[in-house]
Design goal:
This protein has 317 residues and is of the alpha/beta class. It contains 10 helices and 15 strands. A hairpin with a 4-residue loop joins β7 and β8. It is globular, with a radius of gyration of 21 Å. Bound molecules: flavin-adenine dinucleotide (FAD).
Length: 317
């Protein structure tokens, strides 16, 4: 049995945790390959020792850039190696490109998986559906593409195998031409890995006021998330901050929701948080039903007082 894990090097490290579960729960020998979407100049030691059989990487380009290129590369590797599962992060790039690959290969795709269990002679993949209200346990009868939410697994060594790094030629996508690349407005946000998230909603009166949340996040060494209107309608923050059903699914130790009403589509992204704190001036806001701690009050009064207390505890001026 062979598995292919696809992603950036960080993802290949993290998803080795999923490979490890598959190997432990499988009655057959499992070989695990990976496809790095970025060129590898020299073998990184933290990847080399995990136990991958082969790690493929693009040789003729710096990075597999487009969904079509990725879909074709994965389809080609699948046709040559007959993988039982293709595993990748459940992010936009992989959802789009691997849906296309799944269609070409005529195999199903299970997105947003957050847990893997071993069933009798098969694997069971768990994901939440219906805005987080229902857990769906799915088991493919044959080959499948599995997309896993980042932050679900800790990477680690899963076999003693010596890894070979295999350069491959990627076919150039001539359907369009990149004319310019621009840096995103803020630094890379990896909300899926954050332990503390300060999340902002429409309770904020202006874009400028979001600095209150960024200052609090800096103080707590957390990251800033947001509800959909903040990213999609008001465009106060880039999409990578957006949490919920159509945004990112997060699982921090502490989630502080400031001025977020708590509609099911937002809750769907935060259900796996360990502790949820909600600040809302409306005592009937639905967020309180899902919060471990609720503060009925004005976020503009709460944030300065809370920050002051944290500074006192941390001994920060
Ligand atoms: C198909 C679909 C997918 C969606 N996906 C997502 C998604 O992924 N993520 C997401 O977030 N939403 C999503 N939505 C939108 C969702 O339904 C809500 O509209 C959205 O979550 C509301 O955002 P909000 O809580 O910031 O704003 P609001 O619902 O307007 O809530 C603002 C809250 O702030 C409180 N408030 C106001 N002023 C203050 C103050 N000074 N201090 C304290 N509290 C204050 C108010 O009492 C209110 O509860 C989706 C909707 C659809 C239809």
């Amino acid at each position: 049995m062979r598995i292919l894990i696809v992603g950036k090097l960080n993802d290949i490290i993290e998803l080795s945790g999923a490979a490890s579960i598959m190997i432990r729960s499988s009655s057959q020998a499992v070989d695990v390959d990976a496809l790095s979407i970025e060129k590898i100049m020299r073998a990184p030691p933290e990847v080399e020792t995990l136990g991958y059989d082969r790690i493929f990487y693009p040789d003729n380009i710096e990075r597999i850039e487009t969904p079509r290129q990725l879909a074709e590369t994965v389809t080609d590797l699948m046709n040559k190696n007959d993988y039982i599962y293709i595993i990748a992060p459940s992010t936009k790039l992989f959802k789009e490109s691997l849906a296309y690959a799944g269609q070409k290969l005529q195999i199903p795709i299970i997105p947003d998986v957050s847990q893997i269990e071993a069933g009798p002679g098969r694997h069971i993949f768990m994901r939440t559906i219906m805005a987080g209200r229902v857990r769906s346990y799915e088991t493919p009868l044959n080959k499948a593409i599995i997309l896993i939410g980042l932050g679900r697994f800790r990477g680690g060594r899963f076999s003693e195998k010596k890894t070979s790094f295999v350069p491959i030629k990627i076919s150039v996508d001539t359907s369009f031409r990149i004319i310019e690349k621009r840096e995103k407005a803020r630094g890379a946000v990896r909300l899926e890995e954050a332990d503390i998230i300060i999340s902002v909603g429409r309770g904020f009166r202006s874009k400028d006021d979001l600095k209150l949340a960024f200052e609090l996040a800096d103080l707590l060494r957390g990251q800033v998330g947001c509800s959909r209107p903040i990213a999609a309608d008001l465009k106060w923050l880039p999409e990578e901050h957006w949490i919920g059903l159509s945004g990112k699914k997060v699982r921090p130790k502490l989630y502080i929701a400031l001025g977020i009403s708590g509609q099911p589509q937002h809750i769907a992204g935060i259900l796996e948080s360990r502790v949820i704190v909600a600040v809302n001036k409306d005592p009937n806001a639905p967020i309180f039903k899902n919060a471990d701690y609720g503060i009925v009050g004005d976020l503009y009064e709460f944030i300065p007082k809370f920050s002051e207390k944290i500074k006192e505890i941390l001994g920060v001026k």
